[in-house]
Write a structure and sequence with these properties.
643 residues, 10-stranded mixed sheet, mainly beta
């Protein structure tokens, strides 16, 4: 299984175990030009709202709010200048051509008093009897402004946040009021006695940086415009949650250190294994070789700010930089740079990158595929070794929302690409550069872990026609235009499996390490583990946590031989499925828990089902679970627990 879409609430036996990515690109090698047909299948990661501990989830600043069509609709203008309207369904749709009505501030001057200095007032009816005021809070008056009642205050703070900038009253009902502030748009249907946010589907998430892609128990992490770090954890279903991030705290400390020595505001940072980098608002690039103690200027700027810096994790002397400057303004300056020697020399990779501001940059682990997030979308360029001349920049935003790309990142193995789209949040897709060559990865978590007899492997790089492991046929379980899935024969032996792969675009031979067992827990594209409640069959997540004392079923791969032996490529029987031959252990938060059975998953090919009895006493909230077999440990995954 690849990084797939979220699975149904119940996994139904009988289907083949092919929960894989659908092919999302036309076959790269068959394209007449590298940019032709590249349409990554972008999928949203998380929601456009975040948890701010208010009456409802919040989002970014909204500047204007007003009712449309006699009160049947509600429209807003966000801080990014986009217009949206919500009707009866409650969902927001983009208004391509709209303008906000001029605010009527005449009421403020006409009332006998305002609720606080600087507050503005809107009329709730034509007689000025019902009035609403907004400043640091929302206020209501039922006597024409002689007295005011605070309808958002609770223990000294507003239950819907602060920074109110607009308020609208429905022309059809004076009890229906909507307000705009720095946390989004809010609505009351009872004259302010209760409030609900309308932000869950409003594309207005204020992402400033993509900090991390999902890895293990950690989810996708982003930096908001407020400077706070938020995470969409594996299994999260509601809103981005605030988290402490030591890595970001370290980068912030590096930035303060660099700013002191540079004498300028630091606008971009990269913390590497041996090199740390800082870019400033005037375009200077500084490097530190001692963890931020001393900084050296390695490239002087020309006034355009450094917008992003990315250093390869394992070779931090290789660094990529996004510089300010917009080709549309006729500014003849580089916008994407690369250094292979820690900043001593620089190469201009801008090439034919379309006009627009480059906001973010990242590269695959080898540094040969570079992604740029720009005001005109996301682009990919493939580099030829150490050549300073890049190939053509390939656009990849065809299926993304029409908005600037704020940042871009790859997961650690470089198999998935993540992009932050202004207002719309985070999107993910299989990394297109992976389809240039044939790559074989573990299907459970797309890692490079060894294979075992019976393992599921994903072949990236084209439609697979046939496969063999040595002299044994390896059944093709799923074949897409860019990815396919095979099963390693149960009869495979030796220290490696030599895979002979026949694809529509040619033949390849790939050697994959082979071990007795190579346990891995299946995860989806957001890093959520496939763990089910044993009694109900419901997939567990943050909204459906595992209960203390219950049994859970972990879907795994790579547990090797079974007894009695089972044919390769055949779905396991629904009754009395073969048992795993080796002893399987499970650990919850580092402590062993009872494994009641470990078998092939009934009705599926290549899936194993490990049933675990949870303790009667568990700590509520997120926990960590992993499997162990024959001395080998699986990936660590998150499991949400309920005491």
């Amino acid at each position: 299984m690849c990084q797939h879409d979220p699975v149904p609430r119940r996994l139904r036996p009988g289907a083949a175990a092919v929960l894989c990515l659908a092919g999302c690109l036309a076959g790269w090698a068959q394209l007449p030009a590298p940019e032709a047909g590249l349409r990554p299948e972008w999928r949203a990661v998380g929601a456009p709202s975040f948890e701010a501990f208010l009456a409802s989830p919040a989002t970014g600043p909204v500047e204007r709010v007003w009712f449309t069509d006699g009160g049947a609709g509600l429209a807003v203008r966000t801080a990014s200048g986009r217009y949206f309207e919500s009707r009866e369904s409650g969902d927001w749709r983009v208004l391509d051509a709209a303008s906000a009505p001029e605010p009527d501030d005449r009421v403020t001057a006409a009332v006998p008093s305002v609720p606080e200095p600087g507050a503005k007032v809107r009329a709730g009816d034509g007689f000025y009897a019902r009035l609403y005021g907004f400043g640091s809070h929302i206020y209501r008056s039922d006597d024409g402004g002689r007295s005011w009642r605070n309808v958002t205050g609770f223990h000294g703070r507003s239950i819907i946040g602060g920074g109110f900038v607009d308020l609208a009253v429905s022309p059809s009902d004076p009890d229906v009021v909507a307000v705009a502030n720095r946390y989004g748009v809010w609505r009351s249907s009872d004259g302010g006695l209760s409030w609900a946010g309308l932000n869950e589907t409003l594309a207005n998430l204020p992402v400033r940086r993509l900090l991390n892609a999902p890895a293990g128990t950690r989810g996708t992490r982003i930096l908001l415009g407020s400077g706070d770090v938020y995470e969409w954890a594996p299994g999260e279903r509601q809103a981005w949650q605030p988290v402490d991030d030591p890595e970001h705290a370290r980068r912030e400390a590096l930035g303060r250190s660099a700013a002191v020595q540079a004498g300028s505001r630091v606008t971009a940072l990269a913390a590497g294994s041996s090199h740390d980098y800082a870019g400033t608002e005037n375009g200077d690039i500084w490097v530190s070789l001692d963890g931020g103690g001393d900084w050296m200027l390695v490239r002087g700027g020309d006034g355009a700010p450094v917008r992003a810096v990315y250093a390869l994790p394992e070779q931090s002397g290789v660094v990529f930089v996004a510089l300010g400057g917009d080709a549309s303004a006729g500014l003849d300056r580089p916008r994407v740079l690369r250094s292979l020697d820690g900043g001593l020399t620089w190469q201009n990779l801008t090439g034919d990158l379309p006009r627009g501001t480059v906001n973010g940059v990242t590269a695959d682990p080898s540094g040969s595929a570079v992604y740029a997030a720009t005001s005109e979308g996301v682009f990919l360029v493939l580099l030829d070794g150490i050549s300073a001349r890049p190939g053509r920049w390939i656009p990849m935003s065809a299926t993304l929302p029409r908005a600037p790309a704020v940042d871009v990142a790859l997961d650690q193995p470089g198999n998935r690409v993540y992009v932050a789209v202004d207002g719309y949040g985070i999107y993910s897709a299989p990394a297109p550069h992976r389809f240039l060559n044939v790559t074989v990865v573990n299907s459970a978590d797309l890692s490079g872990r060894p294979a075992a007899p019976g393992s599921l492997l994903t072949v990236i790089g084209g439609r697979l026609l046939r496969a063999q492991a040595g002299l044994l046929p390896a059944p093709v379980l799923q074949a897409g235009e860019t990815e396919s899935q095979i099963q390693v024969p149960f009869e495979a032996t030796g220290t490696f499996a030599r895979l002979a792969l026949e694809l529509t675009r040619g033949q390849w031979t790939v050697d994959v390490p082979l071990v007795e067992v190579s346990p891995a827990i299946f995860v989806d594209r957001e890093g959520a583990a496939l763990i089910l409640d044993a009694d109900s069959g419901v997939l567990l997540d943050a909204l459906h946590p595992a209960r203390a004392g219950s049994r859970v079923q972990v879907l795994a791969a790579g547990l090797g031989q079974v007894t009695p032996p089972w044919p390769t490529g055949m779905a396991a029987p629904l009754r009395e499925p073969p048992a795993v031959a080796v002893r399987v252990e499970a650990y919850l938060d580092g402590s062993p828990v009872e494994v009641t059975r470990a078998t092939l998953a009934p009705g599926y090919v290549g899936f194993y089902l490990v049933e675990v009895q949870l303790p009667l006493l568990v700590n509520g909230g997120p926990g960590e679970i992993y499997l162990r077999a024959a001395g080998r440990r699986s990936n660590r995954v998150r499991i949400d627990l309920e005491p």
